[in-house]
Amino acid sequence: MKFKNLVKKSAAASVSLCMLGSAMSFNAIIPDVCSVVAHAADAEKTEEKSYSFNEETGELTFKGSVELLAIIQDSSLDLEKVKSITAEKGTVFDNDFRNIIDLYSNCESIDLKNADLSGVQNMSHAFSALNSLVSVDMSGRDLSGVKDLSHAFAGMDSLVSVDMSGCDLSNVTDMSTMFSYCPELTTVNLSNCSTNSIKNMSNMFGNCPKLSSVDFSGTEIEGVEKINTMFSRCESIKSIDLSSIKTTIDTDNFGLFFKCSSLESIDLSNMVISRYTPQFIQFCDNIKEIKLGEGATEITDNAFLKNGSGWVNLKDKTKVISGNGIYAVFKNEGANTYIRLDSDEKTDILYGDANCDGIVDLSDAVIIMQAQSNPAKFGENGSDLTHMTAQGIINGDVSGNGDGITSKDALTIQKYLLGLLLELPE
Q1: Gap between the Cα atoms of 357 and 69, Å rounded
Q2: Strands 289-292 and 265-268
Q3: What are phi and psi for residue 381, nearest 5 degrees?
Q4: Contact at 8 Å (CB) between 63 and 51?
Q5: pLDDT digits over 370-395, tens only?
Q6: pLDDT below 70 — which residues of the chain?
Q7: C-alpha 210: how far from its chain's center?
């Protein structure tokens, strides 16, 4: 209507000029009219909104070139009525997602697979207040322009899963607090992403009590400087594989796994911790396995790694190497996997039963002597069917318990059988 009125007024003005005796010819007037009409059409196009909203379904659809800030400032759109967000093919977003998408607080689903996000630079707090959103699928997206992902999904009350597998994150430097404080979050997929610049991953998953799976497979991350409280208080996760993170961390590792009470295994095989800061792995009482790489030289008591009944290297399970303190302390050379001898398992050991037949007798001393004299045949990986097993080695370590199988263990078993010792180990 505005456009039609403008055309009418423009034409009328031109005709009036003629009637007033203007020196211009009619042929000169016509191009002027066309020019005015063209400008009016451009104005009409400029006024066209970069979104549409279905009041009945609550669906907000982005289209064309989108300036998110301009949309939220549009008083005709009630943000609280938005239930879902989609984007038409060819939609291009401007460079700032920060604190904008999250204003659609009642949104339950987001589908941006048709949108071009390559020009977005800031996604800090992008979705953080969408408390009705259950899942986010950003897999395969070109986010090569993004530098800041801090707090992107933080504090989302209903969020259960996030898939960012295959994303181009090559310029992202900050992922701190990215998924933290999400009480229902269980799964995060960050596999096969392109990364070159990440420096800060501190508190990335902190305080996500139901988090059970984080996948970094195929994503190589080098040069990270901060990982403190990265998994702090993730009370449900049982296994954390950080082998894709290749970096040397000096001091910013405080509380990395603090209070991960269900955690059983950790892979740090490509990470070098030059100095452990307090609470690195404190209150992780169920941890049973830790993998260290060539660059890791030791585990110190500052790591707060519970010692339990002792830690052994899988390459030599007969020797406890972690000392007698509350927290494990041991040196590391090369790439190794260490396991903890749990107290529960320790109480089930029948000391002296080196051949694992359920009783302690002279045959146990014999198998120990055979393993010592001919390990290729009777050792743990021996060729004979009666060779010693890993459990038999633990059972048979009764003299100087923790130093592995020796001929002294065979002698101690004989002393026990003769009544010279009342119990085993010695």
Answers
A1: 75
A2: parallel
A3: -110, 30
A4: yes
A5: 999 999 999 988 899 889 988 898 89
A6: 1-47, 99-100, 102, 251, 278, 343-348, 401-402
A7: 13
Q: Measure the CA–CA gap between 124 and 49, rounded to whole angstroms.
A: 25
Q: What is the pLDDT of residues 330-372, one digit of tens each?
A: 999 999 999 998 744 444 678 999 999 889 999 999 999 999 9
Residue with tokens 């090559």: 170
Which one, of 347, 346, 318, 351, lies nearest residue 417 by Cα? 351
Tokens of 166: 């295959």
Contacts (Cβ under 8 Å, ≥6 apart) of 210: 183, 184, 185, 186, 236
The pLDDT of residue 332 is 92
Tokens at residue 420, please? 């010279």
Residue reference for tokens 């198998």: 367
**Which 8-state DSSP code applies to residue 174?**
B
* Separation of first and last alpha carbons in the chain: 100
* Rounded Cα gap, residues 3 and 34, in angstroms: 13
The structure tokens 């990335």 sit at 204
